[in-house]
Specification:
By secondary structure, the chain is α/β, with parallel strands linked by helices. It has 11 helices and 10 strands. α10 links the parallel β8 and β9.
Amino acid sequence: MSPQTPKTPTVKAVAAQMRGEIEAMPEWLRRPVGKASELSQVQKIIKQRQIHTICEEGRCPNRGECYAQKTATFLLMGPTCTRACAFCQVDKGHSPMPLDPEEPQKVAEAVQLLGLRYAVLTSVARDDLPDGGAGWFARTIAQIRLLNPHTEVEVLTPDFWGGTGRGGAPVPALPVPALPVPAPDGENSGLHELQRDRIRTVVEAKPACYNHNIETVRRLQGPVRRGAKYDRSIDVLRIVKQYDPTIPTKSGLMLGHGETEAEIVEAMIDLRDAKCDRLTLGQYMRPSLEHLPVRKYWTPTEFDRFGSIAREMGFERVRSGPLVRSSYHAGESD
């Protein structure tokens, strides 16, 4: 008697399971998407220029609110990531698109047409590019400022670990002491000179804020952030401050992967040790059955408590709530 082959779930069964998870979602995570007119205006401009926003690619629950407040987060260098983080909605698993040489200009035009006061630039990880895409961030910032001199530009970058060479234009040395470059170990956990050069390229473009998310606590980095390292991400924020201490730095965590309160506080301590100025804390919401399941829904009261702890630690700007995302109210001061 041959062993039975496990049955592949039908589309209907998968849809029923996902629907059950959505229905089990706490009431505080349910909110209207936003005004259709505001959504369609942004979507039309984005589609016409064949550019991308993480607001749409990541199905952000706050996109309607942000559009109404004249903020948006553009996704540079295509919608396909070279990594495969287990929480992320962004497309992955195949070769990324070639860079569109007109993308910086298109993004700048979209900022102008939308009348954005504050724009956020993020990107997929592009480990296939010689400089990891650092020069593309700088080029896009310059183009936005050319057309929109009064618009502030925040960046949310990958860790710039990877790629095949230095690439891009030479970067002049800055008058700051160089950090020691540790000998590479088995996991390449030190802040490599190549990574430092890429970070410096973005820092020299003078963004209004430099954001890099650690996403989760130290213990859960492996299953949640495939290809990323906790200390490597902390070092991104540390080196930004060493190159230019006047640029505010920011990071964020998604809660709900199974972390403990003590681990969350420990992560906040590590961020403050790297002189991180701003913090976002939000609830992880499973995009599909192919992504990691939610282990816990933290309550609004618990988010308020973590926000209070963060402020007591010295973070100058804190956004903490179930629906908070990296760019939520990014252009507002407390």
